[in-house]
Amino acid sequence: MTLQLKVPTLNSSDAARDLKETILVSEPQAKVDVNLDQQLVTIETGASEETIKQIISAAGHQIG
């Protein structure tokens, strides 16, 4: 399943890198792409949308 989520709290390349790493720790098989300019995170994963949202929120980000 491919998810595309708007994450308006992504405001730096460090934040984008940290979020990608956090997702990959929990979902190592996922493919994660972070578009900092558009504040979009695209994740190809077998995990549920709710699981991915929880990971993003636990990392201190908002989903909009």
Question: Would you summarize the structure shown here?
Answer:
This protein is an alpha+beta fold and 64 residues long. 38% of the residues lie in helices and 23% in strands. A hairpin with a 4-residue loop joins strand 2 and strand 3.
Written overview of the protein:
- The structure is a single chain.
- By secondary structure, this protein is α+β, with helices and mostly antiparallel strands.
- The chain has a single domain, classed as Alpha-Beta Plaits (2-Layer Sandwich).
- The chain is built from 2 helices and 3 strands.
- It has helices at residues 13-26, 49-58; strands spanning 2-6, 31-35, 40-44.
- The protein has a 3-stranded antiparallel β-sheet, with helices on one face.
- Strand 2 (31-35) and strand 3 form a beta hairpin.
- It is globular and about 25 Å long.
- The model has no long low-confidence stretch (mean pLDDT 96).
Report the total helices.
Answer: 2
CATH class bucket: Alpha Beta
What assembly state would you assign to the polypeptide chains in this entry?
A: single chain
Poorly predicted ranges (pLDDT <50, ≥5 residues)?
A: none
CATH topology: Alpha-Beta Plaits
Averaged pLDDT, please? 96
Shape: globular
Instruction: Provide the structure class.
Output: alpha+beta
Taken together, the total number of domains comes to 1
- From the N-terminal CA to the C-terminal CA, the straight-line distance is 20 Å
Main beta sheet strand tally, sense and closure: 3 strands, antiparallel
Q: Could you tell me the radius of gyration in angstroms?
A: 10 Å
Report the count of strand segments.
3
What CATH architecture would you give? Answer: 2-Layer Sandwich
Strand order, largest beta sheet: 1-3-2
User: How would you spell out the order of helices and strands?
Assistant: EHEEH
Helix content: 25-40%
Strand content: 15-25%
